[in-house]
Write a structure and sequence with these properties.
Layout: E1 32-36, E2 42-49, E3 52-56, H1 63-72, E4 77-82, E5 95-97, E6 129-133
Parallel strand pairs: 3-5
Antiparallel strand pairs: 1-2, 2-3, 2-6, 4-6
Bound molecules: calcium ion (2 copies).
Amino acid sequence: MGKGRAGALPGSRQPQPSPSGRGPVRPAGGRLRLVGGPGPCRGRVEVLHAGGWGTVCDDSWNISGAAVVCRQLGFAYAVRAVKRAEFGQGGSLPILLDDVRCAGWERNLLECQHNGVGTHNCEHDEDAGVVCSHQNPDL
Ligand code: CA
Ligand code: CA
């Protein structure tokens, strides 16, 4: 087997214990949810910032960004980075992130390179999504 497009995500199975010893540490910013997909493993990516949810534009969106999202949500694998609002449009939500460029190790999307929260040249038909998995999609 060669190296697949969707690799294992280091650290996804071993969350750091919190100082209190109860549960994983949650990053302060960049909470996520997946919306509009069948099942919990896929959907449009929505990011919580400053108390409000918003969407991510698909410009530059790739498997490294999907890896950050999937790991943050507790999945072991990122299967696919989804473009063009395949899981529906975020409608009335603001578009929070555009030109997101992740290396793959970041703790959340806000740590990736992007244009600045709320700065974008996208429409909602470019909403980004992900497909994650608990199982290796290359097996
Ligand atoms: Ca685009
Ligand atoms: Ca853009």
